[in-house]
Sequence to fold (419 residues):
Amino acid sequence: MRDYAKLAFVVVIVYVIIFGVFYTVAYQTMVRRYNEYIDGLITTISEEYPQIDVSELIYQLKHVQSKGILESYGYDLGREAVIFDKDIYTGMLFIGCGGIFVAFVLYSLIFIIYNRHKNKEISEITRCIQAINNRDYSIDLDELDEGELSVLRTEVYKTTLYLKELAENSIQDKINLKDSLSDISHQIKTPLTSAFIMIDSIIDNPDMDTSRRMSLVRAIKRELGNVNFMVQSLLKLAKFESNTITFTRMDTRIADIMDSVRHNIEALCDLSDVELIVEGEEDLSIECDRRWEIEAITNIVKNCIEHSSPGSSVKVRYYKDSVSVRIIITDEAGGIAKEDLPHIFERFYQSKKKSGSISSMGLADTSATGGSYGIGLSLAKVIIESDGGMITARTIEGGSCFTIIFQLSSALSESKDKQ
Fold:
């Protein structure tokens, strides 16, 4: 619109200049003709009447008032020129009207061109919106030229990108949901199938030995516990993914966190004959949500214990260096396979290795270990990162090592405060 306004302004200026030049020329021509008539009249009078003073005559012509003598000869002084050339007035009127007509035509052309261009842009925007409604998001920003509707076209383009992203995310979400449901179904099916088999064995053998029966009942309870653990972990992960978890961070002693972790896995340590060893400064603290950090570290330690051999140990060591507080968790379970290492924190990752420290994050023989079904480490990573920390895993000699790091900006020591 601004381009067309500029063009119209230029047309007006050009018209004013041309009309001004024409009016000036016409006025000078009229003055010259009028003066020529007066000069001829004075010359004729002075020749006929030499005694008349020419200067007095000129003065009288300039100052004399009309006496109405011409009207007595039939001249209408308001409508008819006695000595003025009508051609000048006619030409002046014709050119003036012609200029107005030309200006009107130019304005009309400008309006038609502008309206056509605007209609073209509106049609293009309409086409883009129709394409978006048909889920065609192939709009090229390079095609959007400058103009009154360029802002609208740019906003349409932004909306297109947003809708395209939503559509792609929606498709990916459906794929992820399908995969997750398939994985969950598979993982729940495994312990439930084992439980049903054992229940059928008890039903089909009413005379089964009591010790054997109790062993199967305990196994059924363990499998149901695995299902319960998986469901609870999935619900917690869903809360994190929907951003409905609120962390309450405060200075918490790591020793207090480890006391709660030890209490949570005490029965598992006794059952697996694995010793938990904790070493670290008694007063060392981190700024975190205590309840969720206990949950995360418990899952990691539990995973290490489940895949450790009887008589081995799991060691937790924590300390402060120059930039961070580190919690190091190591086991003696053989380490993590190289091909599994990049995926151990992925939910439901299926490892090719069925033994060792991780064995696909708990996807080992669940009847023997009560495995975590690939949920525990995934949940632990989400908790730690959401609480401002980070976690890594690597293979060391004879086992695996998990490192949890909290930067000093969120990791404090009571001993330092006392100083």
Notes: Residues 41 and 47 are 10 Å apart (CA to CA). The beta strands are 250-253, 275-280, 285-288, 313-320, 324-330, 390-396, 399-407. The longest helix spans residues 150-204.
